[in-house]
Amino acid sequence: MPDEALPIVLPIDENLTAIGEAADAYTAHSIFSDYQGRRARNTLRRQLDDLQLFCAFLSGAGVSKSADLLFSEPSAWTGMTAGLVKGFVQWQVKRGYSIASVNSRLATIKTYCKLATDASVLSALQLARITLVKGYRHKEGRHLDQERPLSRVGAKKAQWTTLNAGHAELLKRQPTTRIGRRDGLMMCLFLDLGLRCGEMRDLEVRDLDLATGRLTFYREKVDKEQIHQLAPETLIAAMRYVPDGAGSRYLFPGQRDRNTGEERTLDERSINDRVRTLGTRIGLLTLSPHDLRHFWATEAAKHGTDVKSLQEAGGWSSPAMALHYISSSEIANQGIKRGPQPEKG
Questions:
Q1: Of 7, 34, 198, 259, which sits 20 to 30 A from 83 (CA to CA)?
Q2: Shortest CA distance to 114 belongs to which of 85, 147, 94?
Q3: The architecture CATH gives domain 14-147
């Protein structure tokens, strides 16, 4: 037998093997934290909520799981099956959760199952079966909602509250008190710039340049810092309010920490509650910051703003999301331009 045909036997480097195994173990354990480090806080908050509901379903099936562990430990997903995932989908449908919520929670479960597979906790076959569990397309969801007695639970609304220009003007026109000046600026920023609630929460006094009439803030959804020019009435509202918060870090400060005395910003729940209160005063029940963002996008489109500009100004990652926020016309062909019509007679 020629020498080149002889098998080559390499010595085993036990140190390298041990180091490799340790590296694999570390990588598997850090898969969740690496993934979560690339996601927005709101996304992670929603995913944890999804996992808490999933644990409620599992508890009813006699399985005890911790949402915190499912969120942080790949090993917590040991034994997950397609049957359990499909059962979770059906459980939500029977309890009246919206189709959008059902699909979103299914996506969360699949994401963490994929991560658990990457960590060698689930097999590729288990993941393939879980991946085959489907949510509902829009038309399927609509048919399902027609058949089931309850098609939405929770505080989230099926449709946003519709505003008109008169409502917007009333919301901006607040009393000349400290709280009134704060509310007036907040309404102007929501209605004239289309800010998200979280973006409003994080605003600092230094973000507002009264000399140039510009607001600089971070769009977490698209990971971008933007500069917006304020409309005249928004700038006036800012000039009236800012002196009230002299020495504050946050533009809309909340209560200070009881233990440290550190200043905290007005949280999202408080902002939502305030918007609802101001809306109720003018006859708009259940008004939310999300409704104000819809109004801003719809008004911008109505006055000729192109989709690309709207996407940029609103901090959306795609034109489709910008279009989603525009209210449909009552007359479907209202915006269609037609050529000259033949004269009668």
A1: 34
A2: 85
A3: Orthogonal Bundle (1.10)
The CATH superfamily holding the domain 165-324 is Intergrase catalytic core (1.10.443.10)
In CATH terms, are 14-147 and 165-324 the same topology? no
State the CB neighbour count (10 A cutoff) for residue 105. 23
C-alpha span between 131 and 88 (Å, rounded): 14
The domain ranges of the chain are 14-147, 165-324
Render the burial of 134-143: b for 16+ CB within 10 Å, e for the rest: ebbeeeebee
Reduced to 3 states (helix: H, G, I; strand: E, B; else coil), residue 230 is: coil
Predicted pLDDT at 328: 54
CB 204 within 8 A of CB 251: yes
Question: Does residue 153 contact residue 97 with C-beta atoms inside 8 Å?
Answer: yes
CB 99 within 8 A of CB 141: yes
Distance separating alpha carbons of residues 329 and 194, to the nearest angstrom: 20
Residue spans of beta strands (DSSP E) within the chain: 208-209, 214-219, 224-229
- The residues, any chain, with a CB within 8 Å of residue 253's CB and separated by 6 or more, are 245, 263, 264, 265, 266
Q: What is the mean pLDDT of each run of 10 residues along the chain (345 residues)?
A: 55 60 62 90 89 94 92 94 95 88 94 95 96 89 73 57 93 96 97 94 95 92 89 96 92 87 89 95 93 93 91 89 71 51 56
